[in-house]
Amino acid sequence: MSWINDNTLNWFQSLVLRIVKTGQIPGHVALIMDGNRRYSNKQNLRKVEGTLRGFIKMTETLNWCMHLGITEITVYAYSIENFQRSKEEVDIFIDFVKQGFKCLLEEREKLQKAGVCIRVIGNLSFLPKDMCKLIAEAIVITKDNNKIIFNLALSYTSRDEVTSAIRDIGRGVKRGEILPEDVDEDLINDCLYFYKSPNPDLLIRTSGETRLSDFLMWQIADSCIYFTDVLWPEFSIWNFLAAIFYYQRCFPDLQKKRNTTPIVRNSRVSMFIDKLHRERDIMIENMYLSDLSTVSRNK
């Protein structure tokens, strides 16, 4: 379950990618990786096999993005609504993700060399504590890498994200840190899980479904959206390049919609936002340090 593959392209694919790079390349690509279960049924495989093939495809796509010079990728790894599935299926996924993060931590040197920064976006309270500790370690040890940011939306929905932001803002108003008249779209945006990231330039959904499944609903108002019928484990570099070509055709219209007006905040709001972000970083660091102390005690 390697996250970084040194050479995933043949000479012809490398040539085509160089040609594609002469056009406009999206800085941030988001992916709804749909179709793992249908792929398993189609191939008469166990569900875990479809999940494994989906993971392999995710790492391949990360490498394609690095070859193209894309600087951020966000994948919809697991929705909060998926926890309503059978216990067996949820347990399989949780165990799979734990193994995936253990493998990631084992190849940390490759991640550092490739410059991959790992972020996990979502409501971690739905996840087991040992899984959260693995996630925290991955976030902390890669936080200074700056070639590509890899966001995993894990235990995530847009409704939960916006609800969490409103709660944080409500607490700030109650404590007198901000005033009701400070609340606007920019403040909500800065309180979302995705506050560190620019909005996606391109959103891709596989499997033929033409819905967004409560993914990045706040962030994609001006994004290029591309739907493809192919199931996620069967998603090829040619399918990916088709999405990039589609984005390049749409780019002139997208540019007209983008708001480039700088945000001006008063000092009160700036202090509140800085404090909130610092508290979130400290929460992750505490998870990481707790994991290290546990390991130390078990030696």
Question: What report would you give on this structure?
Answer:
- With 299 residues, this protein is α/β, with parallel strands linked by helices.
- Helices cover 52% and strands 12% of the residues.
- It is built from ten helices and six strands, in the order H-E-H-H-E-H-H-E-H-E-H-H-E-E-H-H.
- A six-stranded parallel β-sheet has the order 3-4-2-1-5-6, sandwiched between helices.
- Strand 3 (116-121), helix 6 and strand 4 (148-156) form a beta-alpha-beta unit.
- The radius of gyration is 20 Å and the shape is globular.
- Mean pLDDT is 91; it is low at 295-299.
Spans of at least 5 consecutive residues with low confidence = 295-299
Q: Based on Cα principal axes, name the global outline.
A: globular
Number of strands: 6
Number of helices: 10
Rg over C-alpha atoms, rounded to the nearest angstrom: 20 Å
**Largest β sheet strand count, sense and barrel closure:** 6 strands, parallel
Mean pLDDT: 91
Helical content class: 40-55%
Structural class from helices and strands? Answer: alpha/beta
Distance between the termini: 26 Å
Spatial strand sequence of the major β-sheet:
3-4-2-1-5-6
Order of helices and strands: HEHHEHHEHEHHEEHH
Beta-strand fraction estimate: 5-15%
Characteristic terms for this protein:
six-stranded parallel β-sheet; 299 residues; disordered C terminus; 52% helix; globular; single chain; alpha/beta
Topology, element by element:
Elements: H1 11-20, E1 28-32, H2 36-42, H3 47-68, E2 72-79, H4 87-106, H5 108-114, E3 116-121, H6 129-142, E4 148-156, H7 158-174, H8 185-190, E5 202-205, E6 224-227, H9 237-257, H10 267-298
Helix pairs in contact: 2-3, 3-4, 4-6, 6-10
